Amino acid sequence: MGSKVRVGLVYGGKSGEHEVSLQTAYAVMGEFDYSKYEIKPFYITKQGEWKTGAVLYARPNTVEELRFAAGEAQTGFALAPLFEGLNAGSSAAGEEPRIDVVFPLLHGTFGEDGTIQGLFEMANIPYVGAGVLASAVGMDKILMKKVFAQEGLPQCIFRYFNRTQWERDASFFIMECEVSLGYPCFIKPANLGSSVGVSKAKNREELISAVNYALRFDRKVIVEEFVDAREIEVSVLGNDDAKASVPGEIAPSNEFYDYKAKYIDGKSTMQIPAILSPEVTESIREMAVRAFQAIDGSGLSRVDFFLRKSDNQIFINEVNTLPGFTPFSMYPLMWKETGIPYKELLDSLIALALSRHADKQRIDFTGEAAQ
Question: Which CATH number is correct for 157-225, 3.30.1490.20, 3.40.50.1110, 3.40.50.300, 3.50.50.60?
């Protein structure tokens, strides 16, 4: 590794959250300390094509320029620098140093579901954030909730089914949701981020419509009971020795914190730190770390909770392994209030990625017995 760490920043992606990823990448590029880092852009188009360009020594002027900073579509050429580690640590042409660490800023499908993390694993290259398993479990709300149940974390009541089951016997699942959950209830695609495809149903007609809508985005659907609650979030940072930030609270502008409330109308408000008793604060932070460790998290995650208004009962909602990361997102803002500013947070994430990768090199993948 040279005097500067060369970071491969991956953004865009074949996902409904493509534009959100560009906003995140633009924000992150503006906060890197360019005396420490060189930024190599990797842009993935909505069609899944990869582009890469020259090393950046400053942020482009606009978000739109991020599409062009990585040049023309050239998937094979773009992927070559990521796999240089499998070629004696240098490029075939020997023209530029290898990438030291990858920083994926891809939200949603193909970005935080373990697929691209598997590519980095195959390339044997350090990367920021959760591994393949944690990413996949963190993306699949049904599997995530099963892991939380095994860990003994309190959750809202939920039911789930897939497209085939729904098409074969919708009446059974309608009855099960009505008996177990009642109305209103929330319907979500099992594998999607940023509240895309999420609906609130107040009667049977709305439930059927919401399920069919959610099935546009995934083959599995989860239905959850409604809880009149405050929405509390906690940032987690670390690998095996993770720590939690102060909690923050979201006050949605809409009936619930949907895609519009998150990204479009700008009317949702944040309270950081959340106004909670010391006992509730400590419980939520402890549960956030437990949830992070339960899915074998690494690097970063944001853990979301419901705090029921009637009795302050805490319910874990989900773990987001690649949360929003602009300077105005909850994840860095909660760390800022905890005492870690944005630039220092980037340094920590890079260091955690390199440390985790070094630790994995101690594993004997050959399976050969020691002599």
Answer: 3.30.1490.20
